[in-house]
Write a structure and sequence with these properties.
By secondary structure, chain A is α+β, with helices and mostly antiparallel strands. Chain A is 30% helix and 22% strand. Chain A has 16 helices and 19 strands. In chain A, the strands form 4 sheets. In chain A, strands 1, 8, 9, 10, 11, 12, 13, 14, 15, 16 and 17 form an 11-stranded mixed sheet that branches. A 4-stranded antiparallel sheet of chain A has the order 4-5-7-6, with helices on one face. Chain A has a two-stranded antiparallel sheet with strand order 2-3. Chain B is mainly alpha-helical and 324 residues long. A two-stranded antiparallel ribbon of chain B has the order 1-2. The chains are: A alpha+beta (526), B mainly alpha (324).
Chain lengths: 526, 324
Amino acid sequence: MKNQNLLKSALLSASLLVAANIVSAETFRWASKTDPQTMDPHAVSSAPVLSFLNNIYEGLVRRGRDMSIEPSLAASWEPLDGENGWRFNLREGVTFQDGADLTAEDVLFSYQRAASEESDVRSWFAPVSDVRVIDDHTIDFITKAPNPLFPDSIANFMILDKGWAERNDAALPARDAENFATMNVNGTGPFTLQSRDPGVRTVLVPNANWWDTPEHNVTEATFTPIGNSATGLAALLSGEIDFIQPIPLQDVQQVESRDGFKVLEGEETRVIMFGFPHEHEKLLYSTNESDSNPFSDPRVRLAAAHALDIDSIDRVLFRGKIGAASQLVPAGISGYSEANGNRPAYDPERAKALLAEAGYSDGFSFGLKCPNDRYINDEALCRAAASMFAAVGLNAELSTGPVRDYWPQLREDDFDMYLLGWSPGTFDMEHPIRFLLHSQDNEKKLGSWNFGNYSNARVDELLPMIQQEIDPENRQKLIDELVAITQEEVAYIPLYTQPLIWASKDNIDLTQRADNFFMLRWVTVN
Amino acid sequence: MAYFILKRLVQSVFVMIAVAFLAFSLFRFVGDPVSQMTGVETTVEDQDRLREGLGLNDPFVVQFIRFSSDLLRGDFGFSYRTRQPVAEMITNRIPATLELGVVALLISLIVGIPAGVYTALRPRGIATQLILMTTLVGVSIPTFVIGIMLIFLFGVQLGLLPTFGRGGTVHIGSWESSLFTFDGWKSLILPAVTLGVYQLTLTMRLVRAQMMDVMRSDYIRFAMARGVPLHSLYFRHALANTMVPVITIIGLQFGGVIAFSIVTESVFQWPGMGLLFLESIRFVDIPVMGVYLVVIAFFFVLVNLIVDLLYFAIDPRLRVKEDV
């Protein structure tokens, strides 16, 4: 009898729990692969951190649903008169989540914090020479040269309250050991942190005093990192989470075939490409061509480009979800060169002819390096590419490994050809030019991801001109010239734009932004 | 007795230092922590400064001595990935792993021992054949496949049990437990079964083999001839005599259960030490990896010690020897 009562009360409480779930229908639960490493917006410049913290902190400007720059904490901004730089006019009446007012002092403080040696985002401020507070709501960023793109480049520069940070001993980002800002937040943004258990669960609730009008209807949002994709899929299909980013390509059908779920597909801005050992004197992994570097001949590089059949790769490996790429940014990104929108066609005969012309009619072998956990289907892509290369006589010796081991190898020049994906952080063509096409120059901090050290004097000359050109038409002409040079010389082989694949329940409306950031402020639970 | 325990604990310190040394000599091959700690736009110069600051440029021996002397002083350092104190990260995760391991062990004992006895006493029964076959299947399928199958059956198709995480937990002091809520048990049952299946099969087969052996021995025959009640014969005389090897194996296996809960924890997103270790490998979080391995080594030593002590409790002959 007693047991029966127990059972009854258990059932009752279970049904109460269900009822409670229905009442608070705007509770939103989502999952992603990686937990943000920290809650400090200046300590780690990684996508999981910046994406997550954009829900809590805000910058002077922010990106809209279509990636366009719009006013945020700055209500407006304009170039300075008679001086290089920008003036930002701060929005009036903005308060931090602890009630403090936002002033220009907070922006200055955040700049000093983000540009400090302990910060991981300081490269954003390399063009800045000085920051001046004009009055409580006006602040000037002085740049070393004209910099039309500066406002676009600081969309993820998040503003902290000076008083809060100093009071809590968090005036500098935590680099070696944690500080108060690692686990606590005080932003101006649409959400605030209710609780955080790193690696387990992080709960956000709306900020009642947010200056903007909320477009979401979320009353509580719970984030759980789920590292294993099969577990993540099960969690979605069992209804325990409402949304997950990303899901593997092979699970798309599984989700689509079930009632009540949908797949969100889009194109990320990340272009996947092969890179060459431009500067190497000889191949490292060749069995028959170890005294010279055939890839220093542009005809050989072009042959490699003609050997690749992107359509087949798309059909077989990506279920038709990728778009072929002609240059280092996809169409739609500012600075994309329409004039150079064609990529080398799949043409194995031409590839063989080019190799023969360059003196390699029998082909040669070389080492191809690829990561196996960084990009979608990266290892499978490299296997496919290796067999396509082999068909024209380029025998790729493929070696793959986890990304934690991959970048150090590339930095040590340990490759004959390598795979790289690049997403333009500023959403402008200038970004990959600066990191991938300009010659390596540690002093000027240029070409830091140009592992093969592709180097062309004209390209190096064009970069600062592109950075400083204010007139859009002239700027595009400079970019077109640069893209034409790098295509002719086959600096890289751009392959395709990586797809973005998210999945959610049918009753969730959200925005999939091309930078793979997920913004809670656009979530509606129906 | 006290001397025996003390000796073993002192030995454990050496075991842990040896493990730390081996681990450290392998860390160099795991990858570069700095490229995992920084963003793509971070300059090479800033990366080098960070590397220097963390002491990663020092020779291996210097790094190892620094790590182990810090450990001996009780300073576990800070995580490269989250910048949190490593000691806090690990202790926060210990309850989840221990509860999972202990419940998995209990399941394997509560099901495994009776099943072993039953299959030994009725070697030709249909039920016996059935049990033997299903457990053989269970032990041949890799843990992560069992886990995923259970998740899709009970979580997705039937919707009875949660697919990930610990569910409702209760704080008892600093110990976060899922043993005191219905919700917590619902979350615990699938991972515990997944982790316990191998143990269960092992226990059952071991008990069965031992039991069959003992049942043939002379003292059982004499007891049977003397008319000792069957119940008492099976459980008091026969089973007790099978337990010494069973406890040895199960005890040693328990260390393995804790260490290899990594796979189960990953499949169920169970926030224990194993999951923490996996995340740490991905980020080349050397301080966390080092401390985790040392803690696991300590567990092994501790479990072995407990097994030795259990011998005293179970086997009266050993107690007699000690007294002499």
